[in-house]
Amino acid sequence: MPPPTRHPVAELRDRFLQRLRESSTSREPRGLYEPISYIMGIGGKRVRPLLALIAARMFGDDEELTAGMPVALAVETFHNFTLLHDDIMDASPLRRGNPTVHEKWDVNTAILSGDLMLIQAYAHLCGAPDKRRTHDLLCTFNRIATGVCEGQQFDVDFELRSHVTIEEYLDMIELKTAVLLGGALEMGALSAGAGREDADHLYAFGRLTGLAFQLHDDLLDTFGDGKQTGKLTGNDIIRNKKTFLYIKTLESLDETQRGELVEWFSHSPEDPAPKVARVTELMRLRDIPRLVAELRDQFQKEAYAHLAAVNGDAAWKDALRQLTEELLSRDN
Amino acid sequence: MPPPTRHPVAELRDRFLQRLRESSTSREPRGLYEPISYIMGIGGKRVRPLLALIAARMFGDDEELTAGMPVALAVETFHNFTLLHDDIMDASPLRRGNPTVHEKWDVNTAILSGDLMLIQAYAHLCGAPDKRRTHDLLCTFNRIATGVCEGQQFDVDFELRSHVTIEEYLDMIELKTAVLLGGALEMGALSAGAGREDADHLYAFGRLTGLAFQLHDDLLDTFGDGKQTGKLTGNDIIRNKKTFLYIKTLESLDETQRGELVEWFSHSPEDPAPKVARVTELMRLRDIPRLVAELRDQFQKEAYAHLAAVNGDAAWKDALRQLTEELLSRDN
Question: What pLDDT is recorded for position A332?
Fold first, then answer.
């Protein structure tokens, strides 16, 4: 009896991790390369490279992953570069439970290692086997990377602004998180020879799924079951984080209650329980959880319509749908 | 009577500056794009883009600079990105007489704007008209950019090390400054359709000229005429900077005098005059200025041999030689 077949996505993840280990160098100067191996090695779900690899498998005959792997490495390296530099800007001590690079080394090391990671992301694109596609891959990568930087800046700007519209907020999370998910799929498809139309549909699928993820995360943070998510319920409220839920609630409240919500978000009481309870109540009063869940489902429905329009291998389209559903259902 | 013809290199500089002004955007978010316009606008000699443009003009028919200009913008944007991030790491308050970005805005702004500049450098490469050359340009750019980051890290490492060999020091300045000069020429040539051999000769010319520049700068700092250079003579000695001169002197002194030199470089007396006088004397004692000038001239001679081997337009090869001589003779 043959051994049971591994799940194809799990198989891709294993092969990506294998390739990642092989690509890790211990070159000189070590002070530059060690922090890169460190941050690339401390895990994460590897969602972006998986999206790239699945998209590449959808088109043509990329069983060896020669087309998709360079793009997968590029997007994962880029993603980790953004984490490294964002952690400096946010002065975060921990990343995935480990000390951040600027804590374990120092800020200058984190700046320079991050810079080299951005260059390495581009260097991976040079590893794509079909040189005729380099131009398209490079231009796409630039568009995505520019968007991510703009999203980060909008996020910083919004923290300091008293009023942010729901459209502005959605634009920000689209740039900050959704375009890279879309870009991973688009570039994976392009690397394997997909046409522009299919690549665009996959980009749209990734972008809309990214927006759905973000709303799902916001909902879980405030209304999820802490025992299942393993996180403190109401953490965003405690940290006065202006999430989609907060902005949507603010927009729908009358003036008095709007003043009350703004007041709650202007300080951090020692015992946060009454604040969490009252803010949650205000959100429920305006039926916000249902509204947000509906919007999330609407995004995901539109995403699936784009996926359905892709002329790619049906089994890999299913794999992509499965991966998405896993991510949307998981409570962590 | 026709107006007198402008010097062709001055003409290229004007056209580059014109194009740079046109490419400056005032996009949202302004907190991200304004610092970029600021640093790109505060001058500098624009040596690297000129090298790219001259190299492109050497091959084929690039009168409109359509091939060379994207590369010129890419190398200048990259160079300014390195200045922006280096200034954070060195905590420098001024750049070209103006406040640095992290002083005028803040460190986070300087990190993120710098990141976007690195992406913009790559984006300029996408503007090159012949898509078949994108692959070569991208791989070359990655090699150069990686070298520059490695050079910066070696420089940081050497500051903390008690002993650095002359070979290690030369490798460091090659990476930190010379490879980008070579790369600008190599990429300018490739963009205009030059073959690999000509591009390699131009790279070697730029790399060796860069090394010659660096030794020239070191010499001027310590032995130049302050009235002509407009700089404080002996500034490197006052700042305990481990230049080529210092390392070469250290290597050639006997043990007693080596101890004396190390001692001088271990503190910063209030009146630096006796220190500058004695260290300069030690250097002269070992005939270091002559040795360094000879090495500089040797590098430049080898550089010209590579230039002579290039199968490019003779008038533009002359222009390149003139630009080099101007830079090597100028006392600032």
Answer: 38
